[in-house]
């Protein structure tokens, strides 16, 4: 298991130590130092032709841009080519928040929101669904 601690805005390096038994040393050396084969796919494409791939990727980018616009994270400049990060998008990027979280907070949070409303909204954000619970705690709270 290798994890990362620290503050990404200040640290640009990390150290990992791998401890293994001699029997597994060769396997882990190969795992760490040899590249994995690339198995990329364009899902949903019957044939991998340049025209189809271009269309697929264009649609994917357009859909992603629309999603970020709908979440108030991104604006498209009048030239229709320049993408501009909004304040909401910059906050999401800085704090590693999903665009779904930003949309929820932007749509639901108001200046005069009560503490109860703020706490409720915080319990609804996507990031908390990814946190593990302690043993059997999900049975109590579920």
UniProtKB/TrEMBL annotation:
InterPro entries: Hel308_SKI2-like (IPR050474), P-loop_NTPase (IPR027417), Sec63-dom (IPR004179). GO terms for cellular component: nucleus. GO terms for molecular function: ATP binding; helicase activity; hydrolase activity. Pfam families: Sec63. Keywords: ATP-binding, Helicase, Hydrolase, Nucleotide-binding. It comes from the Eukaryota. The keyword Lyase does not apply. The keyword Chloroplast does not apply. Residues 85-140 form the SEC63 domain. This is SEC63 domain-containing protein. It comes from Rhipicephalus microplus.
């Amino acid at each position: 298991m290798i994890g990362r601690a620290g503050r990404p805005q200040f640290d640009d390096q990390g150290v990992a130590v791998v401890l293994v038994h001699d029997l597994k040393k060769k396997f882990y050396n190969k795992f760490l130092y040899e590249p994995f084969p690339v198995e990329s796919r364009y899902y949903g494409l019957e044939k991998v032709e340049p025209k189809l791939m271009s269309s697929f990727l264009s649609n994917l980018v357009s859909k992603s841009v629309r999603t970020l616009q709908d979440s108030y994270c991104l604006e498209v400049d009048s030239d229709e080519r320049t993408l501009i990060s909004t304040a909401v998008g910059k906050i999401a990027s800085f704090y590693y928040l999903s665009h779904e979280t930003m949309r929820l907070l932007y749509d639901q949070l108001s200046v005069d929101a009560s503490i109860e409303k703020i706490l409720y909204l915080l319990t609804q954000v996507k990031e908390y669904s990814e946190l593990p619970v302690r043993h059997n705690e999900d049975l109590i709270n579920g």
